[in-house]
Amino acid sequence: MVFNVPATLMRFQRTRALVVLVLCLVTWAGAAEKITDLRSTVILVSLDGFRPDYVGSGTPHLDSLIARGVHAKWMIPSFPTKTFPNHYTIVTGLYPAHHGIIANSFWDPTFQAKFSPGDREEVTNARWWGGEPIWVTAEKQGVRTAPVFWPGSEAPIEDVRPSYYEAFDDKRPDDVRVEKLLSLLDLPASERPRFLTLYMSDTDHAGHDFGPGTPEMRAAVEKVDTAIGQLLSGLKARGIEDQVNIIIVSDHGMAATSRKRVVVLDDYLDLKTVNVSDWGPVVSVRARDGNNAAVMAKLAHLAHAQAYLAADIPARWHYSDSPRIQPILLVANDGWLIESRDYMDKHPKFVRGGNHGYDNDDKSMRATFIAAGPAFASHATMAPFSNVHLYSLMAYLLNLRPVETDGSINVFKDVLVKQGDRVSPHPERAPWRKERDQDASRRLPVIGQAYAGY
Ligand SMILES: [Zn+2]
Ligand SMILES: [Zn+2]
């Protein structure tokens, strides 16, 4: 009994603290100052590993955006269907081989150095990042940007830094990420960014740990949808919910994996004779003695995966002409993994979960595209399109003169509406067209620049 008193008191205090916190949040959200001088603004949201078939059950906020905006049946990710290559394709409009981030982890023969997402020194080094991300195009034309937590945002690409960026911290809760974005919109017009990003990784983590179609994935989907709801109500509190163009994408999908679907590479090769990078769905291999033909011969009977010499990689992947691509590429069949015996021995508990990186034509790898705002038609559905076109879309929405890319605005022409003094996105009447034609130097392909030095 004696001990129950403080326990009850503590519970009461905790409840009271919670009530006060909720009241504060409600008051604070309601008290957000109206923004009356907003210029064309794009919020690009990445839901890592969010498959298009996750939408529609437990996703009321994404459903509301679809109802008032544009929704693609799916977006086609670039190959390999990995996080870093695709995030950087989305903002540069270039295929991975053209922007240089050809995998999550890879080797550069010129630098004699390895890039990996966890290596802060390399991630923040501009030498890896080719092409021109949309925030660099914007900053060069006087538009402030805040690509917070976006791959590439921490490097001074072309010696240009975004106005606002932060060191990646995957432990930061989603609600804090949303509040951070909203606080940037609260800045005075002269300091306010017009291109902002929001990144959430819950669905990717749930996908790797448990797989798609699991209760844990359902919980992750509901969690990110709640954060989208928080973003939408934050915009509403500022009176700008109908003035901002919101683009919600994912970088790739997710396939269920299993210990029963593993190709053990040691069964084919003596791993001491090769260098291997990026294990799993897609694997790069190089013979240590340079005899890659001999390695290919050993892989002739490889099951549940395809082996390609670099020169024979399917053209539809646009995965060629980069010195960072290793001589041999192994791509597992959907849901299969390529691992070493050593890895399997060290991970005896690996039974199931999910992964990505596979052929970008695989259904499980499909990505999400939802967009809503003053520039977009409502209730519009788009046929599937490649994520190389998003740079062109964002440049159009921000009225920027784009650089040449692998993409084009054309795929969006039927879902964009005329807004105020903005002209049609049709290329023959696009706002930047005339200017660019007069300035032939701007027509130098960025792809060429991306190759330089690689
Ligand atoms: Zn990802
Ligand atoms: Zn992932």
Characterize this entry briefly.
The protein is an alpha/beta fold and 454 residues long.
Structural notes for this entry:
By secondary structure, the chain is α/β, with parallel strands linked by helices. The protein has two domains: 40-256 and 367-425 and 432-437, 3-Layer(aba) Sandwich (Alkaline Phosphatase, subunit A); 260-350, Gyrase A, domain 2. 30% of the residues lie in helices and 17% in strands. The protein is built from 14 helices and 19 strands. It has helices at 4-31, 60-68, 83-92, 96-99, 120-123, 134-140, 174-185, 202-209, 215-237, 292-298, 341-346, 390-397, 433-438, 446-451; strands at 41-47, 70-72, 75-76, 106-108, 113-115, 145-146, 195-200, 244-249, 255-258, 262-264, 274-277, 282-287, 305-309, 328-332, 337-339, 352-355, 369-372, 380-382, 385-386. Strands 6-7-1-8-17-2-18 form a seven-stranded mixed beta sheet. β11 and β12 form a beta hairpin. α7 (174-185) runs parallel beside α9 (215-237) and α8 (202-209) runs antiparallel to α9 (215-237). The protein is globular. The termini are far apart. The model is unreliable at 1-12 and 420-454 (pLDDT under 50). Bound molecules: zinc ion (ZN) (2 copies).
